[in-house]
Every structure is written in structure tokens, then in C-alpha cells.
Specification:
Blueprint (H helix, E strand, L loop, with lengths): L10 H7 L16 E6 L1 E5 L16 E5 L9 H6 L15 E5 L1 E3 L2 E3 L5 E6 L16 E5 L5 H6 L3 E7 L2 E4 L5 E2 L5 E6 L3 E2 L13 E2 L12 E2 L2 E8 L3 E2 L3 E3 L8 E5 L4 H12 L4 E2 L26
Parallel strand pairs: 1-20
Antiparallel strand pairs: 1-7, 2-3, 3-4, 4-19, 5-6, 5-18, 7-16, 8-19, 9-10, 9-12, 11-17, 12-16, 13-14, 13-15
Length: about 300
């Protein structure tokens, strides 16, 4: 079922999301326009609340990060109702859900053993135009049914699978040096149609930029997510697989449930401001620009 969002129907929330960002200091060189979200894996379930909602056990297994309550019955309302801090991400006001297929080495699950990096970037040249995700926006990136060639040609691929000095592998490499981890980076579409929070295929309401510009069918630039996931496995890779299949079946899901003022502040300061921010919204190379969040990773004034 499709759900719709119109600007007229969202009142003050959308007004906050679409507020004009502060201009960057003209003396600063812009080399990045991003901030990080760092989250650890919390649980594994054969559930997918976007593709197979209300059907527990109907999916291949996923590893969930972010909101600690995510399961087959997850909705925007349930994510929000979990309450501040019900997340494995550093920012307690990010109640979003992020998930991807569980990796196995033989029958043993391979679970990331530290907080993973999810970048929020600009996918367009005019990074000043990026606006926050609307509450409840959700989508799937990649496909469990991809062929190797489709994965190689996917507009979201960055470097494929990598370990040690081996890069641009579109399936798992045969061997990873001892002490290394198997990494993957994959980017999401960053142009929204401005109407649908979801679509029948969980992709059509989103699009990738073309030539650094959002297409007219999807004119609203939102942050470009880039999952950078490291799996603690090395040596012989012959038994390594995803719950969804080979390495080229890599995909992930996102369900936005950020506190709107917090997300808006990070997008404005870091993405629109041309900074390379950590999870607090602080660019260590430009300390004079300050941070968005306090030491508790919350907006100033919030306990």
C-alpha cells in the first residue's frame, strides 16, 4: 500500500524541514558535505517491515541497527514510541531503523563487532539544496535478486567488496589477509518524488541524481545515505555468504524516524554548510564552525 505526504498536510513539521540553511563561512574551502551516524548491530530477525510488513519470519535473516524495537510490525509510530535513546546509534534522537542481510561463514553468523558508519551526504552538486528526510520515508537500496553484472553496474556501488589490498570485487573475494575485515560500501538514491513515503517496489519514489542533478520526476534532494559496513571475517572466503545469497545480493533498508529538529540541524550545518562532520555535527578540521550536538549527542538544552 502506498502512503502519501503532501507539503500542505504536514504543517509545522515540514516548515522546519524546509527551512533555509545557514550559509557557510565564505573563507572556508568546501571539500565535503556530510555527517556520520555511528550505530551497532542490536539484533537479528527473519523480518522485513518494509518488504514484508506484519509477516514475522517471512524474510531471509537481517541484521538490525539503530532503533532497538525494529521487527516485522514496525511502523513510524512504533519507532517514535520507542522513545529517546531506544537506539544503538550515538545520537539518541535518531530512532530510525537500518538493516541489511546477515552474513554467515558456513553456518556461523558474522556480526559487525563495533559501531558501523552510515554517512549522510549530498548526492547532488548543489549541496546547499539538500533537505532532511520527511518522517516515515522508507526505501530499499539494491536487490537480493541482483546478478553480478547488475550489482557491478548499480549506480549505488562504490567499491564493491574489499579487504586488504583487494578492491572492486562484485562478489566476495576468494581470500582476505589475516587480521583484515570484509568491507562493503553502497550508496542510496537521494532524490525524492516529494509525494510518496513508500512505493509498491519500495524504490520508485526515489531516484539517483543524473549529472549531479535530481531528475524532474524526483525533484526533491534529500541526504544520500552511504552504508559502510565491516564484517569480522578473514582467510578463506569460500563459505562466506549473505542470508540473501552471494555478495552481489547485497542490499539494505532505511526507515526514517529521526527527531525532525535534530536531523534538520545536522543537515543544515554539515551538508548545506559544506563540512565533514562526525556524529556530533563537528568538523575537526574547521573547529571554529562549532558542533550541532552537545556531548550527550543531543541538541543544546536537551538533557
Amino acid at each position: 500500500m502506498r502512503r502519501h505526504l503532501t507539503l500542505a498536510a504536514t504543517g509545522l513539521a515540514v516548515a522546519a524541514l524546509l527551512s533555509t540553511p545557514a550559509a557557510a563561512d565564505p573563507a572556508d574551502d568546501v571539500t565535503h558535505h556530510e555527517f556520520q551516524v555511528n550505530c551497532s548491530v542490536t539484533h537479528r530477525l527473519p523480518d522485513d517491515p518494509i518488504v514484508l510488513p506484519n509477516l514475522p519470519g517471512a524474510s531471509h535473516e537481517h541484521s538490525f541497527t539503530g532503533n532497538t524495537t525494529t521487527n516485522a510490525y514496525t511502523t513510524l509510530e512504533s519507532l517514535q514510541a520507542a522513545g529517546v535513546g531506544a537506539t544503538s546509534c550515538l545520537a539518541p534522537d535518531d530512532l530510525s531503523a537500518y538493516w541489511f542481510p546477515t552474513m554467515f561463514n558456513g553456518n556461523a553468523p558474522v556480526i559487525p563487532n563495533f559501531r558501523q558508519v552510515i554517512y549522510y551526504k549530498s548526492g547532488i552538486e548543489r549541496y546547499q539544496d539538500v533537505r532532511p528526510f520527511p518522517p516515515g520515508l522508507r526505501y530499499v537500496v539494491g536487490s537480493p535478486n541482483s546478478t553480478l553484472e547488475e550489482f557491478r553496474a548499480h549506480p549505488g556501488r562504490v567499491e564493491g567488496w574489499e579487504c586488504g589490498d583487494s578492491f572492486f570485487n562484485w562478489d566476495f573475494p576468494a581470500h582476505c589477509p589475516a587480521g583484515t575485515q570484509l568491507n562493503v560500501r553502497f550508496q542510496a538514491p537521494s532524490c525524492w518524488d516529494g509525494v510518496h513515503l513508500d512505493s509498491a517496489d519500495h524504490k520508485s519514489h526515489m531516484a539517483y541524481p543524473v549529472g549531479g542533478v535530481c531528475p524532474s520526476s524526483h525533484p526533491n534532494p534529500v541526504p544520500m545515505l552511504e552504508f559502510k559496513i565491516a564484517f569480522p571475517v578473514d582467510g578463506d572466503m569460500s563459505q562466506v555468504r549473505l542470508a540473501s545469497g552471494r555478495g552481489y545480493s547485497w542490499h539494505y533498508d532505511f526507515f526514517n524516524a529521526w527527531d525532525p529538529p535534530t536531523l534538520a540541524a545536522l543537515v543544515s550545518h554539515c551538508i548545506n554548510g559544506g563540512l565533514q562532520c562526525d556524529p556530533r555535527g563537528y568538523d575537526q578540521y574547521k573547529p571554529h564552525r562549532g558542533a550541532v550536538l552537545g556531548e550527550n549527542y543531543r541538541l543544546p538544552g536537551r538533557p
